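Re: [ENG-882] Designed sequences occasionally contain unexpected residues at chain ends

Forwarding the minimal case from QA. Structure tokens:
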């Protein structure tokens, strides 16, 4: 793989060269690889077909989770979210000990303690991880979905981006079945605070606690804003926002 430094930027295929853009940079690589028909039918590639099948189902499971959370993900994600989630979903899939090789899936893997642990603590925005932004203790009641934070000093216990004047807290409970793809999500109230030295008690109560045949995901989001003339604006397309999976049951 080579980086393109020419004046004219190309995306696409020209003869046996493929030009593409990745994270703002232009790259070029030579076309190649094994014919896909051979991979699909040759007995020598049975393991490759198995791996490809599990790779595809893991990627689809990540998409199911992202879509189920809706606008929360749109407000707190990075450019590598899909690939990072594919990686962790592939780990979750490995804990499926009941399916044949090539058929292992996230639906079975997430049902195990090890599968839940692999996804627990996942940050949808890799540039703003919960553990590096929020330094205040919190409690989660999985029976009610309520998240509480006591005596929070925003200016001291939150690592906020330059220019931010306010922060909002919001929780969510998601019931998701990766096998049937059925989901239901309930959001909490939003608590918006100025980033100052005033002590605050925060209680985030979801409108309900969705249940289903799959798992329950408990999430916390922090959003940063800058106030100008009494109006709050999101900072730089919300790239500093935090969205974290606190717990899975």
């Amino acid at each position: 793989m080579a980086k393109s430094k020419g004046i004219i930027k190309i995306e696409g295929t020209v003869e046996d060269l493929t030009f593409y853009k990745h994270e703002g940079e232009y790259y070029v690589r030579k076309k190649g690889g094994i014919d896909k028909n051979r991979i699909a039918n040759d007995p020598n590639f049975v393991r490759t077909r198995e791996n490809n099948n599990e790779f595809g189902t893991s990627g689809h499971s990540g998409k199911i989770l992202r879509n189920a959370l809706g606008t929360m993900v749109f407000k707190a994600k990075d450019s590598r979210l899909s690939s990072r989630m594919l990686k962790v979903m592939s780990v979750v899939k490995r804990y499926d000990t009941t399916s044949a090789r090539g058929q292992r899936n996230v639906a079975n893997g997430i049902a195990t303690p090890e599968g839940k642990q692999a996804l627990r603590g996942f940050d949808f925005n890799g540039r703003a991880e919960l553990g590096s932004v929020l330094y205040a203790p919190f409690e989660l009641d999985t029976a009610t979905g309520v998240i509480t934070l006591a005596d929070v000093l925003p200016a001291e216990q939150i690592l906020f981006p330059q220019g931010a004047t306010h922060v909002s807290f919001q929780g969510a409970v998601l019931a998701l079945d990766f096998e049937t793809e059925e989901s239901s999500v309930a959001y909490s109230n939003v608590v918006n605070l100025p980033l100052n030295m005033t002590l605050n008690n925060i209680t985030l109560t979801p409108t309900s606690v969705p249940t289903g045949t799959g798992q329950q995901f408990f999430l916390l989001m922090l959003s940063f804003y800058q106030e100008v003339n009494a109006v709050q604006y999101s900072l730089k397309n919300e790239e500093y926002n935090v969205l974290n999976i606190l717990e899975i049951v």
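QA comment: On inspection the terminal residues look reasonable. The mean pLDDT is 85. Proposing we downgrade this to a documentation issue.
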